[in-house]
């Protein structure tokens, strides 16, 4: 048996090639968001609002009712925060309720809920305890069940899904101490040995890893005779010999999160436990995240709802300067932002979830936008709630209760939500991922024109393709329904906002085309510009979802007038943010910022750091992850 592979040394080009190879390149179904970035406002893809089947509603609502009772009687969020762990009896109760199998098909013992009701369940349980919500999400959204559902063999599904639906907790292991969003450097190895693979390496930030029964592990198979090799996915029994949970991590928020460092030393995994072919691991991970990412914005929408309730109740009873603080404009604008944005967050999640259930559209960009937008806006909502609460917003719930006031965990929510801007793709990585998908049509026809490695013949072919594509595409960016006063009249007062979205999507596409023409191969280095392009698209997607949801609620008679008012407020706020982003596309400090950053890294401003002390302890920036046997205690624990 050959020695484990060492951490690969990769160039920037090789890292990009690895990420590009894992992308799902083909578009077999329409995509509302993809069309939006191309300047084509395909309202027909999202309106009328897609709806769940009656039977799915019946089963989903029945489970939500049972889950609500469980959350109210058997989840003690304050205790989880104090003890920094989810009690075993709470986890056992979730198993008995069937919550581990919400997304698992009923034929395997799961509940078989739709994506829509799964996300509503996560929003509900996350409001009781974000740590419990994270446990359930990590188990089903990115843990073993979802990769098996999409890529597993029938034998694997039969063997593992019944366990995962009722008794076994799963975890997803990709990140390593020196590998985050750059998987080309992944070093955990899986060396073929007969009818097995032998795993060696260290995984970091293994959510649920401390209590998991089954793991999905990404490891690098070395190429050899009969083995194409590459990053590969495996289902691994957590109690296999050679697996050690070396440390349970502690964070600023989500204190109950069972997240750790897991070491593999000579861990033997049957070849039958490999998911998909060798080398398909990253593609499996990215495809899993296409819908898996929707769980996070669902929790963000739930957090917005809680913030709205607390803001409403507090701002109505707290009096300053002759009246309730909510009646003062300085606070009222914050309350309006919380209410309107919460409406939009729920609209985005519900629309994307129902689109995922219908499976008529490719939602990879929609899900990524929902994750990006939800995590950023929920953080702002929670920050505004803390500000509205004042000193009480900064005070812990236990301290408030100890002196006789309502125990409102506003500061905890702010801490808990902060990780969402990092989880499952940081905001910066999401900007680049979405931007790559948004310009895919351009790169497909003209990529070789800006590729310095392309041959003259390839450039000539690309030129011909690009000429035909842009001759058809560019004229469509000049005029559209957004310039006609009567367009989208069925939306009433919201029609003007949809006309704005249509006009602005064309403006966004023109801006992208101009930038590609200007910077060509250097476009990928303009990350701040690409981030603004994506943020504009996110605002337009959220505006579309809010208007479609408001119109749906008006059609059904379910708070239609109030929904229209919230959608109108949100769209007006979003339009201001959008216009600011457009202004910053071409008038910004990007070049200055880059020079200053280079100066900081070169040590030219170290004089600015004088006059302080650094309370950090000495130690390496990144822990040693050399493969080998464990030297410490195994902190893995089984939930009875």
Automatic annotation (TrEMBL):
Its cofactor is FAD. Its EC number is 1.3.99.2. Keywords: FAD, Flavoprotein, Oxidoreductase. GO terms for molecular function: acyl-CoA dehydrogenase activity; flavin adenine dinucleotide binding. InterPro entries: Acyl-CoA_Oxase/DH_mid-dom (IPR006091), Acyl-CoA_Oxase/DH_mid-dom_sf (IPR046373), AcylCo_DH-like_C (IPR036250), AcylCo_DH/oxidase_C (IPR009075), AcylCoA_DH/ox_N (IPR013786), AcylCoA_DH/ox_N_sf (IPR037069), AcylCoA_DH/oxidase_NM_dom_sf (IPR009100). Residues 61-166 form the Acyl-CoA dehydrogenase/oxidase N-terminal domain. Residues 279-437 form the Acyl-CoA dehydrogenase/oxidase C-terminal domain. Residues 171-266 form the Acyl-CoA oxidase/dehydrogenase middle domain. Residues 1-26, 618-640 are annotated as: Disordered. The keyword Oxidoreductase applies. It catalyses: a 2,3-saturated acyl-CoA + A = a 2,3-dehydroacyl-CoA + AH2. Residues 11-26 have a biased composition (Basic and acidic residues). Belongs to the acyl-CoA dehydrogenase family. This is Butyryl-CoA dehydrogenase.
